[in-house]
């Protein structure tokens, strides 16, 4: 909210610090590098090389302190100024060491991540004007920006409530009337709330002068004023009047009263104010203007005469003496032969005191800018930088920057915000808008818009000044010769083929596709032709092709002479049941009737019948049943096992069997003849009578007796086999005892194995 000029200066210095070659030492007109020792002025913050500013201060002190007379030499401490802002520094303030911007670190190290010549610490320099706060930025060039701290402050007139504001803009106005009493003591300040003292009261009022004799209308701001009349009041002596102009208060005593001295001041007299003081008659003895001799006249009024005594004077150079009046200076005609401070020219001043003044000739040496000559007086050492500035302009001359003379060769021209005003070099009436620049204008990027042969406008970018690479212009003498860089020439290229999409139908009229205008002609879509051939069954299988319309036919889908001819067999569906193909080639309309004979087996599959295909396919279900029947008895067996009694028929045989069969009871003793179908249906059954049951009981008893006898016979046979087996085991045991001479003690298994094995074998035999 405050003055942004200091902040803008800080931003400018920061930008110059980071841009290579942007910071320039105004003494040597050379760029300030990161690794060079520098010094910054505290007035204008301009940066100089440390060596350059030391030499500048030394030369300035030498030139300024060169005394004009011998008496002033070495008595004054002359200052030296900044080369840019002329801010004066004392001799003791001549820089001798390299410090960072904030002055904390001596010889700061070069850090690529910091501002050049910065220590990287917090600046902590006090703001100007001082507000009690310190700069919080990192060590930086240029002035510190306005104080950003927030403080609570009230307006200038103290009427408004305190509000938080930036410290740099803490003084503000509430815009209400000030209201403070003015110096006149009668009126109040009517100006809006303002800083500082109130302005003088602008109102007019009648005021008396200091002596009160006159009254005039005057501004309230100046209530006291004096008129032009002499006071004229009688003094206390009664002999003289007050000679002061309009004054306040008493007039005071008479100025001729009291003790008064004679003109030489040696004798005092007490006389009335009406008498003048007489001379004392003694010698005057006042020191004359020469400062050596005294006035020899008697006490007198007025100034003393000049010194007329004869003295032997020595000239200023000290080479000659002469007697002459004291008040006259003595200068000889001898010219000084000493070399002046420029170390080039002799002094040549008459009767020089030895302390020769600086050379009064113009230096005239060419300055470092190579454009001007040094306008200073002749001097030692290198000349000061050129004081002139040069305007560096953009191409159009509307944007200008001032740079030190000599830097115009290395400084970049300023960036101009004006549009380029050059006429276009292509066929367009106006060129694209771009900023002012040096060199050739950029290539035109506007659409060409030339009318092509097809009538469309060229849509590509302008190609009137295209760069074309030239090849084959230089033939190399051999493989040792280095190939030269390709040469480019600027030439106008023809417009490219028109790419405007045009809807085009394919040859076979299958589709419409957008094609570029330069190639917009009928084409093959690579599909099959698809037109219906004369057979009315198949379509043309050729790739999409041109078809000639015949007899002015408006139908574009009809077959033409370019289409293929159908060579296929007739593939139309045959009547149901006809296995033969159509004898005609592929044709339109219905196929002719089939007259071939069919070889078909009858329903019973025993006989082969020959029937016309037409009769069979045209017959209904009953007629087909009769045609396929062989008229013989059906050979199939019924579920009951009898042969079907029907004539050859289709499908399954009837389930009701009319064959007569014999029905018996369960014991097969009783029998009866009944129809087979009734037996199958379970309608007829034959039960056993009492005689059958008696015979069945007796037969059962006989069977039980036979089974019991067989079981007893089996038991006897098994008993006989067991006894025979035991006898064989006993005989073997006796023979083994005879062979063994030594008796071996038997184990428990050997002792009791017979008792265990016999029952087991017995059970096995019984089972077998």
UniProtKB/TrEMBL annotation:
Q: Tell me which InterPro entries the record gives.
A: NFX1_fam, Znf_NFX1
Q: Does the keyword Coiled coil apply?
A: yes
Q: State a single Gene Ontology molecular function.
A: zinc ion binding
What sections of the sequence does the record tag as coiled-coil? 688-735
Q: Which GO terms describe its cellular component?
A: nucleus
Q: Which UniProt keywords apply?
A: Coiled coil, Metal-binding, Repeat, Zinc, Zinc-finger
Q: Which Pfam families match?
A: zf-NF-X1
Start and end of every NF-X1-type domain?
A: 131-149, 184-203, 237-256, 290-309, 317-338, 342-361, 369-388, 426-446, 535-568, 578-596, 640-659
Q: What is stated as this protein's family in its record? A: Belongs to the NFX1 family.
Give the protein's recorded name.
NFXL1 protein
Which organism is this entry from?
Struthidea cinerea
């Amino acid at each position: 909210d405050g003055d942004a000029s200091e902040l803008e200066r800080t931003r400018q210095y920061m930008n110059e610090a980071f841009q290579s070659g942007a910071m320039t030492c105004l003494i040597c007109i050379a760029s300030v590098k990161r690794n060079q020792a520098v010094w910054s002025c505290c007035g204008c913050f301009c940066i100089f090389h440390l060596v350059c500013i030391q030499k500048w201060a030394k030369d300035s002190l030498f030139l300024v302190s060169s005394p004009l007379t011998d008496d002033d030499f070495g008595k004054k401490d002359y200052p030296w100024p900044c080369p840019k802002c002329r801010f004066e520094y004392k001799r003791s303030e001549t820089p001798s060491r390299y410090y960072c911007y904030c002055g904390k670190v001596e010889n700061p190290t070069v850090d690529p991540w910091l501002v050049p010549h910065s220590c990287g610490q917090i600046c902590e320099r006090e703001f100007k004007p001082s507000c009690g706060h310190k700069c919080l930025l990192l060590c930086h060039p240029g002035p510190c920006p306005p104080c950003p701290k927030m403080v609570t402050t009230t307006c200038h007139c103290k009427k408004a409530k305190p509000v938080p504001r930036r410290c740099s803009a803490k003084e503000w106005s509430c815009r209400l009337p000030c209201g403070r009493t003015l110096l006149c003591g009668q009126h109040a300040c009517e100006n809006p709330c303002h800083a500082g003292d109130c302005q003088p009261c602008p109102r007019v009022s009648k005021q008396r002068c200091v002596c009160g004799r006159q009254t005039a209308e005057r501004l309230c701001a100046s209530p006291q004023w004096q008129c032009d009349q002499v006071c004229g009041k009688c003094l206390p002596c009664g002999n003289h009047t007050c000679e002061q102009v309009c004054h306040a208060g008493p007039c005071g005593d008479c100025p001729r009263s009291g003790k008064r001295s004679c003109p030489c001041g040696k004798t005092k007299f007490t006389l009335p104010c009406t008498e003048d003081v007489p001379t004392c008659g003694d010698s005057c003895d006042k020191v004359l203007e020469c400062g050596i001799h005294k006035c020899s006249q008697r006490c007198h009024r007025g100034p003393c005469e000049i010194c007329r005594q004869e003295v032997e004077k020595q000239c200023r150079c000290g080479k000659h003496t002469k007697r002459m009046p004291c008040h006259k200076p003595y200068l000889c005609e001898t010219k000084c032969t000493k070399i002046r401070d420029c170390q080039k020219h002799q002094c040549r001043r008459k009767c020089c005191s030895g302390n020769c003044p600086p050379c009064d000739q113009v230096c005239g040496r060419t300055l470092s800018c190579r454009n001007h000559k040094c306008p200073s007086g002749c001097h030692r050492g290198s000349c000061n930088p050129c004081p002139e500035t040069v305007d560096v302009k953009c191409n159009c001359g509307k944007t200008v920057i001032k740079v030190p003379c000599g830097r115009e060769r290395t400084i970049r021209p300023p960036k101009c915000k004006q549009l380029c005003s050059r006429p276009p070099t292509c066929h367009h009436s106006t060129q694209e808008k771009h900023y002012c620049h040096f060199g050739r204008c950029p290539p035109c990027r506007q659409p060409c818009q030339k009318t092509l042969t097809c009538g469309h406008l060229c849509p590509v970018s302008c190609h009137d000044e295209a760069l074309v690479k030239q090849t084959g212009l230089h033939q190399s003498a051999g493989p040792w010769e280095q190939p030269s860089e390709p040469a480019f020439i600027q030439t106008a290229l023809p417009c490219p083929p028109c790419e405007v999409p045009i809807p085009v139908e394919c040859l076979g009229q299958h589709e419409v596709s957008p094609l570029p205008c330069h190639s917009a002609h009928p084409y093959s879509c690579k599909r099959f032709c698809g037109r219906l051939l004369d057979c009315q069954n198949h379509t043309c299988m050729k790739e999409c092709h041109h078809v000639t319309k015949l007899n002015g036919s408006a139908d574009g889908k009809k077959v033409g002479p370019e289409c293929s001819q159908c060579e296929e067999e007739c593939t139309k569906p045959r009547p149901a049941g006809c296995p033969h193909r159509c004898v005609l080639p592929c044709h339109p309309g219905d196929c002719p009737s089939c007259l071939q004979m069919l070889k078909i087996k009858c329903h019973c599959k025993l006989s082969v019948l020959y029937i016309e295909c037409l009769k069979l396919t045209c017959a209904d279900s009953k007629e087909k049943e009769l045609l396929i029947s062989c008229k013989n008895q059906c050979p199939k067996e019924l579920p009951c096992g009898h042969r079907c009694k029907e004539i050859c028929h289709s499908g399954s045989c009837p389930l009701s069997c009319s064959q007569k069969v014999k029905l018996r009871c369960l014991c097969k003793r009783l029998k009866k003849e009944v129809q087979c179908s009734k037996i199958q249906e379970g309608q007829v059954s034959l039960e056993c009578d009492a005689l059958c049951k008696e015979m069945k009981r007796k037969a059962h008893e006989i069977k039980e007796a036979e089974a019991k006898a067989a079981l007893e016979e089996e038991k006897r046979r098994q008993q006989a086999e067991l006894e025979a087996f035991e006898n064989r085991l006993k005989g073997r045991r006796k023979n083994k005892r005879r062979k063994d001479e030594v008796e071996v003690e038997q184990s428990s298994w050997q002792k009791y194995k017979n008792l265990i094995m016999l029952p087991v074998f017995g059970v096995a035999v019984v089972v077998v």
